[in-house]
Amino acid sequence: MSGTVPVRTGGRIPAQPGPRDTRETAGEARQMATRTADVPTEAGGHEAKAVGSVAEGTQGTQGTDGPGTGPAVAAGSVIPGAGPARPGERATVRLRDTGPDEPPRYAPEWLELREPADAAARSHDLLDPLRIRLANLPGKAGLVIHDLGCGTGSMGRWLASRLDGAQHWVLHDRDPYLLHFAAVASPRSAADGSRVSVETRRGDVARLTADGLAGASLVTASALLDVLTREELETLADACTGAGCPALLTLSVAGRVELSPSDPMDAEITEAFNAHQRRDGLLGPDAVDAACEAFSERGATVRVNPSPWRLGPGEAELTAQWLRGWVGAAVEERPELAARAERYLHDRLAACEAGDLHVTVHHSDLLAMSRPTGGAS
């Protein structure tokens, strides 16, 4: 297939190039990318948005040591790319307002940090019905899997080794820099040792059509649904059901967070964060219900399973980053929380560092089995 990228490594994201190497790396990725108009894309934002956005410019929460001067909520304290790059900007999977040379918004370091938690959270129970469907596909050419908003390719590294048969992954993202990481760190073999190949594409989820998914065996995505509008979700459902291919859409935020030990401010931060997730018409924590409705109306059979992050002392670095982004987004939504949120964050980070904090961030995985076309069973 044209655009196929030789698999050079597998299983781990390479180190991020330094500033002097970034332009060269992005240029290489652009040369690798298969440019098409009717494909979805993302700068890894689907993976970052699921756990919160950094409230850059929330001056009331900046500091260094203790209450009143505690750990910063602002962007300087968070891995670059763990949330929106500019104050008030939402993560987006669209190219409508961006140019082809816009710098990457999400850093590979953030996506790599969260990848183990994502892998542990995804629902294995949805794989059995998916395997049955894929095993009954006509022909022997192997699977063609489209990964929407692939970021650094974590979905492929999780799923390819759990499916039998030759696989060709089509990786979609708006950021050529992240596409480069996804391509070079893609898996080399399927569960039964069959070959896995990969190609990269850039495009726009708002223009995704059934024709753009022609020949697809499966559509996958991670933490994508909650950063879509209802219109964009319906476009996605139209494309998948029109192409007759199943969709495995994992790690959508459920709007619920549990922290232990609890704090009286937990619910207030959660409420403000959920409101932030719904900005600009985004579905946020309403995404899974909306997706169930959209796919079901189009004749698909939909299954939903929980896929929570369970973060303890072993995930302290991820928990600390998530806390900063979660609280930061809440403060961006409700600036009047800033002073109390600063103290709250300071205490939470201290408990995290001491190994005393456990967090459950609830997500949902969705499998939509569209009615097959072309004689598939």
Radius of gyration: 20 Å
Mean pLDDT over all positions: 77
Quickly count the helices. 11
- In terms of per-residue confidence, which ranges show pLDDT below 50 for 5 or more consecutive residues? 1-76, 78-104
Number of strand segments = 10
Q: How do the SSEs run, as a string of H and E?
A: EHEHHHEHEHEEHEHHEEHHE
Largest sheet: 10 strands, mixed
Tell me, briefly, the overall form: globular
How far is the N terminus from the C terminus?
25 Å
Q: CATH top level of the domain at 4-61 and 79-253 and 285-307 and 363-369? A: Alpha Beta
CATH architectural grouping of the domain at 4-61 and 79-253 and 285-307 and 363-369: 3-Layer(aba) Sandwich
CATH topology of the domain at 4-61 and 79-253 and 285-307 and 363-369: Rossmann fold
CATH-level-4 superfamily name of the domain at 4-61 and 79-253 and 285-307 and 363-369: Vaccinia Virus protein VP39
**Share of β-strand residues:** 15-25%
Q: Give the structural class.
A: alpha/beta
Binned, the helix content reads 25-40%
Properties at a glance:
377 residues; Rossmann fold; 10-stranded mixed sheet; 10 strands; 17% strand
What topology does this entry show?
Layout: E1 4-5, H1 19-32, E2 34-35, H2 45-49, H3 108-121, H4 127-135, E3 143-148, H5 154-159, E4 167-172, H6 176-184, E5 196-202, E6 218-222, H7 230-243, E7 247-260, H8 266-277, H9 287-297, E8 301-306, E9 309-311, H10 316-333, H11 338-353, E10 358-369
Parallel strand pairs: 2-5, 3-4, 3-6, 4-5, 6-7
Antiparallel strand pairs: 1-5, 7-10, 8-10, 9-10
Helix pairs in contact: 1-6, 7-9, 8-10, 10-11
